[in-house]
Design a protein that fits this description.
Helices cover 17% and strands 26% of the residues. The longest helix has 10 residues, at 126-135. Strand 7 and strand 8 form a beta hairpin. The chain is an alpha+beta fold and 161 residues long. The chain contains 4 helices and 13 strands. A 4-stranded antiparallel beta sheet has the order 2-10-7-8. A 3-stranded mixed beta sheet has the order 6-3-9, with no helix packed on it. Strands 1-13 form a two-stranded antiparallel sheet. The chain has a single domain, classed as Adenine-n6-DNA-methyltransferase TaqI, Chain A, domain 2, CATH 3.90.220. The chain is globular, with a radius of gyration of 16 Å. It starts with 11 loop residues before the first strand and ends in a 6-residue tail after the last strand.
């Protein structure tokens, strides 16, 4: 599907045209916290809808491969890709050497198309959550397919709004 340019603002566009959607960091082995770790790894247990990140529980480790791809920064949105709940968390500040684990999709909004706070809000709407849950597959622990997520139609307000 072709994405439109930001000058002709349609009412809705596929998520993959409004943001980069990429999986989080997948380790080949179990990540164990280490005092000599160079990076932090955010996992689902470290995030709460109410209180944000529980830094005391975040694991420190040494990544096995290119950490830059999974580094989170201000404006990114972490969407729980696995489990029963698929809520979105807006990263509101810059974190040093902090990666999102593979239980998340890292969504990097194109700020020329959509504001990160709006997109996080939209992803958490009950109607959007219902669409995301409908895309969930797998037995036991549900998983959201990245292509299905990227094809969700994002309702965009007029540019003036």
């Amino acid at each position: 599907m072709q994405c439109t340019d930001s000058t002709s603002r349609p009412h809705a566009i596929p998520l993959h045209c409004a943001a980069l959607v990429q999986p989080g960091y997948l380790s080949r082995t179990r990540v164990r916290s280490s005092r000599i770790g160079t990076h932090h790894l955010l996992q689902a247990k470290d995030l709460s809808r109410d209180s944000g990140i529980a830094w005391s529980d975040v694991a420190s480790f040494r990544p096995e491969r290119n950490a830059e791809l999974y580094q989170i920064s201000r404006g990114d949105i972490l969407l729980l890709a696995r489990g029963r709940s698929h809520w979105a968390f807006l990263v509101a500040e810059d974190f040093v050497n902090t990666l999102a684990s593979s239980v998340f999709y890292i969504i990097r909004p194109d700020t020329a198309v959509v504001r990160p706070a709006y997109l996080a809000w939209w992803l958490n709407l009950p109607e959007t959550q219902a669409q995301i849950n409908a895309c969930s597959c797998g037995t036991g622990i549900g998983y959201i397919n990245r292509q299905a997520l990227g094809s969700l139609m994002v309702a965009l307000p007029p540019t003036e709004v």
